[in-house]
Amino acid sequence: MKFRQKTPVTLIGGFLGAGKTTLVNRLISSGERRYGVVVNEFGETSVDSALIEELQDGGVAEIGGGCLCCVGREDLSVALYGLICRENPPEYILIELSGLADPVPAAQQLLTTELRGLVDLDSIVAGADARNLERTMFEAPEGKAQLAYASVVVLNKADQVEEETLRAAEKIIRNLNPLVRVVTASYAAVGPEEVTGLKALDPGWRPRGHRVEHGAGLTTFTLRTPDPLPLERWMSFHRRMIIARPGKVLRAKGIIEFREMDGPFVLQTVRELYTFDEYEGEHDGGAELVIIGRNLDEAEYRAAFERVAARTGPDL
Ligand SMILES: Nc1nc2c(ncn2[C@@H]2O[C@H](COP(=O)(O)OP(=O)(O)OP(=O)(O)O)[C@@H](O)[C@H]2O)c(=O)[nH]1
Q1: Alpha carbon distance 267, 269 (integer Å)
Q2: Which of 21, 22, 186, 273 to mutate to test ligand 1, by most ligand atoms within 8 A of the CB atom?
Q3: Where are the alpha helices (DSSP H) in the chain?
Q4: Which atom of ligand 1 approaches the CA of 157 most closely?
Q5: Residue 8: what pLDDT?
Q6: Are 9 and 63 in contact (CB under 8 A)?
Q7: Helix (H, G, I), strand (E, B), or coil: what is residue 265?
Q8: Which residue out of 270, 277, 289 has the highest number of ligand 1 atoms within 8 Å of its CB and is therefore the one to mutate?
Q9: What phi, psi does 304 have (nearest 5°)?
Q10: Nearest CA to ligand 1 atom 14
Q11: Which of 4, 130, 243, 301 is deepest in the core (most CB within 10 A)?
Q12: Ligand 1: centre distance to CA 277 (Å)
């Protein structure tokens, strides 16, 4: 097969919950180009790809079960070939890295392997959560690499912080990466021209070989039940097992149906903040919840979740 021209690619990184999917959805809904998306998740991907808005026809490819910096290199090649070889291939590809991924191995692969003939790495973008940035820098080695290699940082969640916190966050970013462009945003409301089509990387640029060790004790698991959950028991589980443990549960997201309410809901929890919104996509019923954290006792979560789903039994 002959490819007429290389497809530009932007890598989108940033720590768990910083707003990467929100940014991807912004770009897609700008309708500017036919985007293809590669979604990489530390956990299973079914919830995450369900949260990517329906693309017109650029396609979504999923790489789950680990960060791109850790899973086999083949996965990225297969995902990109899959998109590029579509009948109606994307004009531009966004690679959404997992919230724990180091962007360098993915950039190296795009720049130095056979993929170089197919795609052009245009830019590395990082989302940063202004509210949690300081905490992330302190606790997570992954968070630093994501910012250090970015061409542009979208300093997101400006609506959640005072000006002073926003400026402090910008300072942290500039200390790590003095030449980076910082764009402040709420709900990743940036124009496509601010993060794509930048030709931000010098053609000869190669990231120096390095390796970010993931912080210890990272855990992810998915809790599922085929039946809708009783609302009150769920609220108690959410409060006690997720919200009350912000240092341990870094991220939770899921699609959940409740016995007492119509339609499924999307739960998004970043540390102690959470939202519930109606989910408009297709859902098989029941509940599916991805949890990512440090040193979590999976068995404890599974047992508690089973008690939520049970119609009878002791309170949580
Ligand atoms: N208040 C507020 N919430 C935001 C903003 N941007 C994103 N969110 C919310 O934060 C949560 C996480 O956003 P995502 O876009 O899923 O974050 P992510 O970086 O893709 O998350 P992971 O892939 O799990 O690492 C969602 O509930 C978003 O709606 C913002 O600027 N302000």
Answers
A1: 7
A2: 22
A3: 20-29, 46-51, 73-84, 103-112, 133-139, 141-148, 163-176, 192-195, 231-237, 298-309
A4: 31
A5: 96
A6: no
A7: strand
A8: 270
A9: -65, -40
A10: 19
A11: 130
A12: 13
Widest pairwise Cα distance in the chain: 64
Q: What is the pLDDT of residue 57?
A: 65
Low-confidence ranges of the chain (pLDDT < 70): 1-4, 44-46, 53-58, 67, 69-73, 203, 207-215, 311-316
**Which residues contact ligand 1 via a Cβ below 6 A?**
14, 16-22, 99, 127, 156-157, 159-160, 186-188, 251, 253, 268, 270, 275
What is the CATH topology of the domain spanning 218-309?
Hypothetical Protein Yjia; Chain: A;domain 2 (3.30.1220)
Q: How far is CA 257 from CA 53, 229, 264, 282, 293, in A?
A: 20, 6, 4, 12, 23
Encoded tokens for 86: 């579509």
- Whole-model pTM: value is 0.86
- Report the DSSP pairing between strands 60-63 and 35-40: parallel
Q: Where in the chain is the domain with CATH 3.30.1220.10?
A: 218-309
What is the Å distance from ligand 1's center to 21 Cα?
Answer: 7
| Residue range(s) of every CATH 3.40.50.300 domain in the chain | 7-195
Distance 169 CA to ligand 1 centre (A): 17
ipTM value, please give it. 0.99
Q: What are phi and psi for residue 141, nearest 5 degrees?
A: -60, -30
CATH number for region 7-195 = 3.40.50.300
Q: How many CA atoms lie within 13 A of 223 on its CB side?
A: 28
181-184 and 152-156 as β-strands: parallel, antiparallel, unpaired? parallel
77, 59 in Cβ contact below 8 A? no
Angstrom distances, CA of residue 164 to CA of 4, 169, 170, 184, 190? 49, 9, 10, 13, 21
Among protein residues, the one with the nearest Cα to ligand 1's atom 5 is 187
Nearest CA to ligand 1 atom 12: 17
